[in-house]
Design goal:
- The structure is a single chain.
- With 920 residues, this protein is an alpha+beta fold.
- It has five domains: 19-55 and 125-233, Calcium-transporting ATPase, cytoplasmic transduction domain A, CATH 2.70.150.10; 63-116, no CATH class; 253-316 and 700-760 and 773-913, Calcium-transporting ATPase, transmembrane domain (Up-down Bundle), CATH 1.20.1110.10; 322-348 and 557-687, Rossmann fold (3-Layer(aba) Sandwich), CATH 3.40.50.1000; 353-552, Calcium-transporting ATPase, cytoplasmic domain N (3-Layer(aba) Sandwich).
- Helix content is 48%, strand content 17%.
- Strands 10, 11, 12, 13, 16, 17, 18, 19, 20, 21 and 22 form an eleven-stranded mixed beta sheet that branches.
- 47% of the residues are buried.
- Keywords: ATP-binding, Cell membrane, Membrane, Nucleotide-binding, Translocase, Transmembrane, Transmembrane helix.
- It is a multi-pass membrane protein.
- This is Cation efflux transporter.
- Belongs to the cation transport ATPase (P-type) (TC 3.A.3) family. Type IIA subfamily.
């Protein structure tokens, strides 16, 4: 990209070496810049050539286009046609009801889709509005949008980094990069060139990135990438690429079913029309019958059933702290086979916690989690004896005395202001018995040497009560141990021997193997005179080693149970984290995600795998560590290539592309960034992995309700079509008039179907393995039950109709067939509540709405045969209560046979497989 006629700005190094693996001088040379920055004129030319430092949003979709997209479904057009035809037939109630359902679906879909595409806009909010930049040799505050490659950023604590930049100078610089890496720990930065070019983002210590913030220190850095060329910009591009209009499994299955339904309906209607025409039936009568059959064949209540099922599921899930942004996501979650989850803040508490202290040759256990005061220190599982308190108080004085963190309580929750590691050490010191206020009062601070990544130590010098100075030091245990010559013991301070060093190293190794991050603590006494040298080299040597602190981010208490539930439900849980492999693997094994046979790989190893190799290995990998946003998206695609239905959880910006690319994206409500929430289908308000399991249960229950309701609707329609087809073929008069078919659909397919859609979730739903993504909603078992039910209902209606033709008029025969068909379908709604359990094993009053609706429908049907006005409207004849009771008894036959079939099928399965009851 050219900034002027004489200067070419290279966004990526031409040699193939990354910015972090080149010296600062080489980077400045490639960017045609200097340590004093660009001139205003040069910067303006580059800004004109390369554009502003802003993230681009995707092409906006017009509201009209979104609205029209709601009418792409084939079944929606079938329903529109059914509504229009019903209106032409004078059935205004049916027409209004059908068209109202279509409009309701369109409005809900429009609202959801119109609000969904805000991920890139949310990313823009994370860029810095202002930044300090050197221009013309002077520091100026500029809009972040005006920054160009080659500019020199001037950074201080609290600044939001405005672009990706290579550090030129850094003084105790620490940055918070959790938005990109997902890890809560601050990252210590340095200027030194990194030798390896292929290292994870989290390990690029000489780089700062757009959207991150400065926690401490100062720095100068040369901008190497702006706008969409930054790491944040690459994530924005991934979100756009991942956010295709991929439909949910339920939407795909219903669309496929709709196509089959329309062709089957057209074939049957054409067959009956042809047969009637050959027999000389009047064309008007043929047309009315054909249209009525077409309307009868379409389950008008299906969209309402789906919408109501999903909406009620969303309501139940909100009570369980899961907010759904898109209705179809509920069903998708129910069919999930793989959950890819972040570690920090999702499976773990997201707060560093000291679990072990080692002092004076003894190991102590620290209880409690997070930054709260709850917990204490124990020795071999027992309460601490007073005799052992002194060494721990010595260690606590160092942990608190060399510490800049502060603990605050906000709305009952303890939080740390400062570095999480120092916060954890401060809490541990308080649990031991250390008093910060006393330390600050009795041991006033005289000097401080902040933590530096080169020496990996921090030290604070305080004035002791006797007037002398003491240096309190915390830092990397191996570095600290190398500077110690003495050892603090239960009996006092003595010289450190080689055996002592080996013991401490062995203890450090043992703690590290338990995935604990280990820090050492030491001190040194100084003379304290006015000429005392307080520099790092002078004070951080000849130390007295006091102890070790082992800390980690503990798993949530409920995470282990939630993972076990997922395993029982046949759902694979995979950890994807930016943390170190050893720590990630230890947490995964503790929670139950990983076993001894599972693999754990790093992002660098993922880079070495092709997409096909990753797809083949994915089922055996339980932990991915030190990964970037691109790695997460590749992992999602690898699982999807294995025909898995994948859910992705996370909270950081680096999770957003994978969340949007997954079948179901889940964001954390408390710790999640706005970008992640906008990209997600569902938000967990309590950041609790167990809530996801509850959502899976809801999703499975909703799918079961939709499936059994669809089967109920289609079985009824099948019975009506079979009855009409058989009668036309054998030459009987048409058994049901158009108004009969429409009434049957209104009475039996309306409210009873909605009641089935709201049936309580089966208690054993989480004991079944998830459905295959390729499984059709109308599988062999579904179709077999549907046709058997249709055959039985059509059979009893045909027998009653044939008997009526032999003993009475066509009108009375039609009235009898009409009544028995309504009775049979209403009774069958009770058996439809379970595909496997007979009706007497399903508690009747757990769905009181269905009971009430069936009783009202029975009453309306009987009343229509005793009320002259309603009888003329429905074209029925008078029927005594005795005859109604006989027809009701006949109508129970299909229900009884179907329930006996369930019993026989269950017994057969138990005998041949010795397996628990399953669907076939």
């Amino acid at each position: 990209m050219k900034a002027s006629k004489s200067v070419t700005i290279v966004v990526e190094p031409p040699t193939g070496a990354a910015w972090h693996s080149q010296s600062a001088e080489a980077v400045l040379a490639q960017l045609a810049s200097t340590a004093e920055g660009l001139s205003a004129q040069e910067a303006a030319q580059r800004l004109a050539a390369n554009g502003p430092n802003e993230l681009k949003e995707g092409k906006p979709i017009s509201p009209l286009r979104i609205l029209l997209s709601q009418f792409k479904s084939l079944i929606i057009w079938i329903l529109i046609a059914a509504g229009v035809i019903s209106g032409l037939l004078g059935e205004r109630v049916d027409a209004i009801a059908i068209l109202a359902i279509v409009i309701l679906n369109a409005v809900i879909g429009f609202y959801q889709e119109f609000k969904a595409d805000k991920s890139i806009a949310a990313l823009k909010k994370m860029t810095a509005p202002q930044a300090s930049v050197r221009r013309d040799g002077q520091v100026a505050s500029l809009s972040a949008a005006d920054i160009v490659a080659g500019d020199i950023l001037v950074l201080e604590a609290g600044d939001l980094v405005a672009a990706d930049a290579r550090l030129l100078e850094a003084a105790s610089l620490r940055c918070i990069e959790s938005a990109l890496t997902g890890e809560s720990e601050t990252v210590t930065k340095q200027v030194a060139t990194l030798e390896q070019s292929d290292i994870p983002l989290a390990d690029r210590a000489n780089m700062v990135f757009m959207g991150t913030s400065v926690a401490a220190g100062t720095a100068r850095a040369v901008v190497v990438a702006t706008a969409m060329n930054t790491e944040l910009g690459r994530i924005a591009s991934l979100i756009v690429a991942a956010g295709g209009e991929e439909r949910t499994p339920l939407e795909q299955k219903l669309e496929s079913f709709g196509r089959v339904l329309v062709w089957a309906t057209l074939g049957i209607v054409a067959l009956l029309f042809g047969l009637g025409f050959l027999r000389g039936t009047k064309l008007l009568e043929l047309f009315m019958t054909a249209v009525s059959l077409a309307v009868a064949a379409v389950p008008e209540g299906l969209p309402a059933v789906v919408t109501v099922s999903l909406a009620l599921g969303v309501l139940r899930m909100s009570r369980r702290r899961a907010l759904v942004r898109k209705l179809p996501a509920v069903e998708t979650l129910g069919s999930t086979t793989v959950i890819c989850t972040d570690k920090t803040g999702t499976l773990t508490v997201g707060e560093m916690t000291v679990r072990t202290l080692y002092v004076a040759g003894q190991r102590y256990e620290v209880t409690g989690e997070g930054y709260g005061p709850d917990g204490d220190v124990r020795f071999e599982g027992q309460q601490l004896e007073p005799a052992r308190a002194a060494p721990l108080l010595e260690l606590a004085t160092i942990l608190i005395g060399c510490n800049n963190a502060h603990l605050v309580q906000e709305e009952g929750v303890w939080k740390v202001i400062g570095a999480p590691t120092e916060g954890a050490l401060l809490v541990a010191g308080r649990k031991v018995g250390g008093d910060r206020e006393r330390i600050e009062e009795d041991l006033p601070k005289q000097h401080e040497n902040p933590f530096d990544s080169d020496r990996k130590l921090s030290s604070v010098i305080r004035r002791m009560p006797d007037g002398k100075l003491r240096v309190f030091i915390n830092g990397a245990s191996d570095v600290l141990l190398a500077r110690c010559i003495n050892l603090y013991t239960m009996t006092g301070v003595r010289s450190m021997t080689d055996e002592d060093r080996q013991t401490i190293v062995a203890e450090n190794t043992a703690l590290a193997q338990h995935a604990l991050r280990v820090l050492g603590s030491a001190y040194r006494d100084l003379d304290g005179g006015p000429d005392t040298d307080l520099t790092v080299d002078a004070v951080e040597r000849d130390l007295v080693f006091v102890g070790l602190s082992g800390m980690y981010d503990p798993p949530r208490q409920e995470a282990k149970a939630a993972v076990a539930t997922c395993r029982a439900a046949g759902i694979r849980v995979v950890m994807i984290t930016g943390d170190h492999p050893q720590t990630a693997t230890a947490i995964a094994r503790e929670i139950g995600i990983a076993s001894d046979d599972d693999l754990a790989i790093t992002g660098v190893e993922v880079n070495k795998l092709s997409d096909d190799e990753l797809r083949e290995r994915a089922p055996r990998i339980a932990v991915y560590a030190r990964v970037t946003a691109e790695h997460k998206l590749r992992i999602i695609h690898a699982w999807k290539a294995n025909e898995a239905v994948v859910a992705m959880t996370g909270d950081g910006v680096n999770d957003a592309p994978a969340i949007k690319g997954a079948d179901i994206g889940i964001a954390m409500g408390k710790s999640g960034t706005e970008v992640t929430k906008q990209a997600a289908d569902m938000i967990i308000t309590d950041d609790n992995f167990a809530t996801i399991v509850a959502a899976v249960e809801e999703g499975r229950g909703i799918y079961d309700n939709i499936r059994k309701t669809l089967q109920y609707l289609l079985a009824g329609n099948t019975g009506e079509l079979l009855l009409m087809t058989v009668c036309v073929i054998i030459g009987f008069p048409v058994p049901l008039l158009p108004i009969h078919l429409l009434w049957i659909n209104l009475v039996t397919d309306g409210l009873p179907a909605l009641c089935l859609a709201t049936d309580p979730i089966d208690h054993d739903v989480m004991q079944r393995h998830p459905r295959l993504s390729s499984e059709r909603i109308t599988n062999r078992s579904f179709l077999w039950t549907m046709f058997l039910t249709g055959f039985l209902t059509a059979g009893v209606a045909f027998v009653v109709y044939a008997y009526g033709l032999q003993t009475g008029t066509t009108a009375t025969a039609r009235a009898a067939a009409f009544a028995v068909l309504v009775f049979a379908e209403l009774l069958r709604s009770f058996g439809a509540r379970s595909e496997t359990k007979p009706v007497w094993r399903v508690a009747l009053f757990t769905n009181i709405n269905l009971v009430v609706v069936v009783l009202i429908s029975f009453g309306l049907q009987v009343w229509s045969q005793h009320n002259a006005t309603l009888g003329r409207f429905l074209k029925t004849s008078y029927m005594s209560f005795t005859d109604c009771c006989l027809l009701l008894a006949v109508g129970t036959i299909p229900l009884l046979i179907l329930e006996l079939v369930k019993v026989v099928r269950h017994a057969y399965q138990q005998k041949n497989t010795n397996q628990p009851e399953v669907k076939i």
